[in-house]
Amino acid sequence: MTTLPSESKIGRRLLPVVIDEISTYDPSRIFATIPISESLRDGFMDVTYRDFANAINRMSAWFDHEFGGKSSSFETVSYNGPPDLGYSIMTLAACKMGFKTILSSFQNKLEDQLNLLKKAECKAMIFAEGHPINPDQIDKHGIPIVRVPTLKEMLDIGGPEPVAYTFTKTYDEAEMDPLVLLTTSGTTSVPKLVVVRHGWVSAVDRAHSVPKSNGRAPSFTVFKNRRLWSPLPAFHGGGLIGNLIIPTFSNTHSIWAPSGRPLSTTLVEEMIDHIHFDMVLLTPFIIEVVVKSDYSRSKLEKVDFVVYGGVNNTCRKAPLPRETGNRIWQKTKLINMIGSTELSVLPTYLKDPEDWEYFYYSPDLPGIQMRPTDGDPDLYEQVIVRDPATDPYHSTFWTFPDAEEYRVNDLYAKHPSKPNLWLYIGRADDLIVLSDGKSFNPTSMEAVLRQHNYVEAAVIIGQGKLAPAAIIQFKRQVFEELGPEYNRDSFMKDIWPCAVAANKIAPPYAHMSEDMFFLANAEKPFRFTAKGSMMRHKTIALYAQEIEDWYSVADGKASIAKL
To answer: Domain of life of the organism in this record (predicted)?
Structure first.
């Protein structure tokens, strides 16, 4: 592999500059492998760095023509396309032309998303064929709609060389310039925009060079020279990192699935069968679903590295259930990472395989603090504070340049015997405080309930109430198979073993008796993010009236079986 001039500048490299550099010095190096069609049987095609750089230049020319030249003020455009390489191409083409791009998530309400676009003074909404939202729905809101060529036309492999558009700024000049705007998931409030600057990206670049801690290597070193399939949403921070930043800075070969196929156990199985990759980056929710099937699990175990976590756009980060991880860690290398849109990825380290569910935070990076909580002496809240040894390795203070500290709102517990190992428990705003002031975090209990093969999701409620309760959503096909004769007794007989297991890991005051479990209405499905995480607060709000009706029964007891 050709040595590049920029390799001596880790942490001061700029994406558009490095891509053009590789295109010049090592043009045949493969950036990505993409499917030829929606059917994996049709095979795949390689996209070299020369192909990728040409596509970026081709779309830079498109920006030049469509918007009358470069922007001098980082005007905003929104890109909306199918989940494919087009997101990376359009992001960098806009960057070369002085624009910043909103990577819109239409998992949010259309009204909320449009309000964000107006707040950002969006100049135009760029739509590619295959995006799930009909642009005609947007026209009436007064934001200009612009159609963009397809991915095949962007790449135009074998076509004429486009005019080169050069990104001329140095790192010092571009560090605080915006690259993209990401939209949060809006799980606990209305969505908001987060500015991702070039300095934000540089922190991810430095993740490869975090100093070792007690002989441990930083987690990010596992990405170097791998073949990675990262099916995280292209409009999320995790997608930006997994499909653009890591491949460019780690010489990671990016693998793509067909853009028209949703992530599922079947797709995971077929991808493993049809194309080689030695690493996959998945959300805990997807791993949990895959591992429930012996056949799917056997496929996943063929992959050398299963990385989970990702960047969650300030939505609730769901830990991988212990039972799920314990079923696969001896067959494949299971690696956890954690971050958010605001932070990018926090610097964590490789651990002993049996400690797969813990995060190792280095004592040599004191800017990452664990502060005791008031409600539970065993829980600690993570807080990021300014520290010269730590700041280069996360993006917090590029997102919040005027802040001195940032409360992450994540809760952890110490390993019972090993220092510097921390177990992620959940979000501080997931904590349930009962009417007597006692509190508990329900996420581990919910994970146990999800282990039942019937269960798609579970949410535990009880904020300000005498006792907690659980609402359980069955998979749609299970509802259909069980039929209308399925009753309360059958439900409790089916779910009770998992309920007992959930109670075992809860404090005694959070135990739930049989009359505290409810089956969700099949016609009122829970709310989920694009990454598959349950949107706790929106789901509870969906059932707000039913919850209040039930809790109004004397002593918090009820005889009804469904909400």
So the answer is: Eukaryota
Q: List the beta strands (DSSP E) in 274-420.
A: 279-282, 305-308, 333-336, 339-340, 344-345, 358-360, 368-372, 380-385, 405-414
User: In this predicted structure, what is the pLDDT of residue 466?
Assistant: 85
Average pLDDT over residues 268-294: 93
Contact present, 184 and 314 (Cβ < 8 Å): yes
Pairing of strands 227-229, 178-183: unpaired
- Residue 273 CA to residue 467 CA, distance in Å, equals 48
Query: Which tens digit of pLDDT belongs to each residue from 15-45?
Result: 999 999 999 999 999 999 999 999 999 999 9
Q: How many CA atoms lie within 13 A of 6 on its CB side?
A: 25
CATH class of residue range 431-556: alpha beta
The answer to whether residues 44 and 254 touch, using CB atoms and an 8 Å cutoff, is no
Q: Please determine, looking at this structure, whether the domain spanning 200-427 carries the CATH number 3.40.50.12780.
A: yes
CB atoms within 10 A of CB 63: 24
Query: Please, which residues have CB within 8 angstroms of residue 8's CB and are 6 or more apart in sequence?
Result: none
Tell me how far apart the alpha carbons of residues 288 and 354 are, in angstroms, rounded to a whole number. 18
- C-alpha–C-alpha distance, residues 265 and 297, integer Å: 9
Give the mean pLDDT of the chain. 90
Torsion sign (Cα): 364, 367, 370, 371: positive
> In what helix (H) or strand (E) does residue 44 lie, and over which residues does it extend?
strand 44-48
Tokens representing residue 464 in the block: 């300000």
Chain mean position to CA 400:
20
φ, ψ (nearest 5 deg) of residue 369: -110, 150
* Span 491-525, pLDDT tens digits: 999 999 999 999 999 989 899 998 899 999 999 99
The domain locations on the chain are: 200-427, 431-556
C-alpha 326, offset from chain centre? 22
Q: Is the pTM of this model over 0.70?
A: yes
